[in-house]
Amino acid sequence: MTTRQFVCPGCGATNRLPAERDALKGKCGRCGEPLFTGHPLEVDGEAFRAHRRATQGAAVLVDVWAPWCGPCRTMGPQFAAAAATLEPAVRLLKLNADEEGAVSAELGVSGIPALLLFRDGQIIARQAGAMTANQIVAWTNQALARAPA
Ligand SMILES: [Zn+2]
Q1: Domains in the chain, start-ordered, CATH in brackets?
Q2: CB 49 within 8 A of CB 23
Q3: Dist CA 135 CA 24 (whole Å)
Q4: Of 21, 47, 54, 62, whose CB is crowded by the most CB atoms within 10 A?
């Protein structure tokens, strides 16, 4: 069993968790905030990079969206609902493409909503267009099963 590592949503500290600990009940060793809130985390570029770099033993799924984008708004609640099923094996993040245009371009996002799935910092799958919560969960699990651990 490997140690997992998560970034605290509250203070950004990196927390290591033994495999046998329930990450959903884990609290940050620095600030005491829960490591998982049951909701996708809104991140800026800096926080996104921290999660991408420091998350270990779990995947990172990013929804790149913008407030003016109708399909993005449609998918928002679906993405949030998917968190209940996917956490803590997958950390769900939301990145605003308008506010973080450089990061979005860096990731090669050309159309939104876009989903990007990372493991060990590497993109292992990407998908454009709105999906339902069930589709998001199925797509994520298929991509994780396909990609070598
Ligand atoms: Zn913290």
Answers
A1: 38-146 (3.40.30.10)
A2: no
A3: 23
A4: 62
Q: What's the pTM?
A: 0.96
DSSP 109-139: --SSSEEEEEETTEEEEEEES---HHHHHHH
Distance of CA 43 from the midpoint of ligand 1 (Å): 15
28 belongs to the catalytic site: no
11 is catalytic: no
Tell me how far the alpha carbon of residue 111 lies from the centroid of ligand 1, in angstroms: 33
Q: Tell how strand 90-96 and strand 41-43 pair up.
A: parallel
Beta bridge partners of 42: 94
pLDDT digits (tens, 9 = 90+) for 2-39: 789 999 999 999 999 988 899 999 999 999 999 999 99
> From the CA of 21, how far away is ligand 1's center (Å)?
17
